[in-house]
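Record 1 of the preview.
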Amino acid sequence: MEDPLHAPATRGPVSTELLAALGRNDFPDHLPTLESAVDAALRATEDILYDDDLQLALLCLYELHYAGIEGVDDRWEWHPALVAVRSRIEAAFEDRLRRGIELAGIELAGIGRGDAGIEDRPISSAQGVAEALFRMAEGGDGPSVSDFVARKATLEQAREFLVHKSIYQLKEADPHTWAIPRLPGRAKAAMVEIQADEYGGGRAGRMHSELFARTMEGAGLEAAFGHYVDVLPAITLASVNAMSLFGLQRRLRGAIVGHLAIYEMTSSLPNAKYARGFRRLGFDSPVTDYFDEHVEADAVHEQIAGRDLAGGLVESDPRLAADVFFGAAAVCLLDELVGAWQLGAWREGRSSLLAALPAPEAV
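->
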């Protein structure tokens, strides 16, 4: 379902310089103004996870590897100067994720150092990896957006929830698919099995991105990919950028596997609550089809993801165990931060987006 990203409104010097460069029809060897802007922004940022300028720039750089950006020449995708700039932002982003996980560590992981032994006694069996991931999936005690949507969300808040999800769900599965050629036997087969379901089992109308597009349309929202990028806060962009960070780099193949595994393990019950919430607000099929599909599909996927995908990868190369748990913990960290952002706004009676959505003419 993914369309090219429309050129977003800039949010600071880095995104301004980047989008200006992408609008050029020449390809200089160096982009010194952009490079200087990135260096200055990285020195000045208080927290890259909440830095609108840097997260938007990173999103745009990543979108060059997906469906592209409207009006931007595809030759920019692997331009050395852009790759160098992206690497600088990625290094700070990855470091922030690792520090955030270190600080929240045991609570996020649901496992202690002496128990899971991620550093001291690496888990090397598929069953051990799956059990540790299931403990991580059960360990979160942060704010629950799914509970709020199920019980309390207004129509306006439920529509905002869909907008937050849209920046990933309208291209669902694509960031994880980068990992397929980088995985060995058992893990590769498991990834293909999961992704085949995500892409509708060969039926375009059943692709999960297509189902989500129909959910948005039924709720009176635009379903074009990236339509709402200008109202999404940095922390929401960061949660999507993390997938591309992991998926596009072979050295982080363990992290993208851990990301997908915990994503599947923590999906089924929340999606049942989302479906309940939208039915409470008067919706049914096709708005609820996306959530209903995931209640069943992800209950199956979680077993494959834990044992065969993540566990199979670690059995084939135990050195990747730490990265698998890093990717899983990154999901827990970012989901908690995004949830806190949304619920904090809603409890204060304000929009969780950078600008409130216009009221639908008819839903």
